[in-house]
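Ticket #4471: structure output looks truncated?

Reporter: J.K.
Steps to reproduce: submitted the chain below (217 residues) through the standard prediction queue, then opened the result file.
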Amino acid sequence: MLYCAEENHSLINQFIAEIRNVEVQNDPLRFRRNLERIGEIFAYEISKTLEYSVKPITTPLGTSNIPLQDDTVVVASILRAGLPLHTGILNYFDRGENAFISAYRKHIKDGEFKINFEYMSSPSVDGKVVILADPMLATGSSMEVAYRAILEKGTPKHVHIVSVLASKQGIEYIKKVLPNENISLWMGAIDPELNSKSYIVPGCGDAGDLAFGEKLG
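Returned output as attached by the reporter:
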């Protein structure tokens, strides 16, 4: 399943517009908060896909039977850019377990790069619903590395991949290299191309730098 939020004309469009806008995005606090709010919206939408069973809840005046979530959710994100999006998802899945993956581009020359995977902290994901978050899905290479790292911790029931901005190339790559039967893609907006450095165009720039400051290397 591929869901593109921008196509459905909701409040999320305003948050995406501010993330893209050069006059707004230079406020790191607002940039992080917009990523967080988008994470909250996606968490709510993903919650509709989970399994529920009715549980009796005791109130001061009686009992109310309420459908409550049965699935165990693991919220996973790629460091460091994924942290605000992760926080937004966790705000709603506040009983969820957490995983963190260190995977980043190591630039070689002339726009060429490889993905360095260094570290992952994760619980078992066996039989659980994993929400894998990274604000940018450019080539799809980092997401593939993160997905395969998750599989080292078990076999998830389902994986929801969440990104704010994606390229058409990245979407097609993910569809090609990852199994389709248990993966859903939740994208804020899908852009037409990548530039020579494999950044999304028009995109928003480097999400990690905008959220947390420029880094060396």
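Triage note (M.O.): checked the attachment and the full token line is present. The first strand starts at residue 2 and ends at 4.
Status: closed, working as intended.
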